[in-house]
Amino acid sequence: MTQMPKLIAILNVVAWSGFWAFGFLALTSDPANGQQMTTAAILAAFGAAAGIWAYFQLVRHSESTGYAKQRNRADRSHLEKEYNEETA
């Protein structure tokens, strides 16, 4: 189980590197060569999607292990009590 966060971290770095590299290629390629620009843009989008997914997985893991503090969440227990009183 300890190896999975390391692999996701590596995926995160590789994905964001691909996003920046292919994004740069998409933006600087010759506009006359639309196929090259489209391919680079699609690969950049896949890199961004994989990078975002990996980042959120790392955040989830760091919160569950206690490395990062938990997100602030409202106490909604009073809503259930109020709902049960209204329906009774």
Automatic annotation (TrEMBL):
Residue ranges with Basic and acidic residues bias: 72-88
Transmembrane segments: 7-27, 39-56
Origin superkingdom: Bacteria
Keywords linked to the UniProt accession: Membrane, Transmembrane, Transmembrane helix
Region (Disordered) residue spans: 65-88
Name of the protein in question: Uncharacterized protein
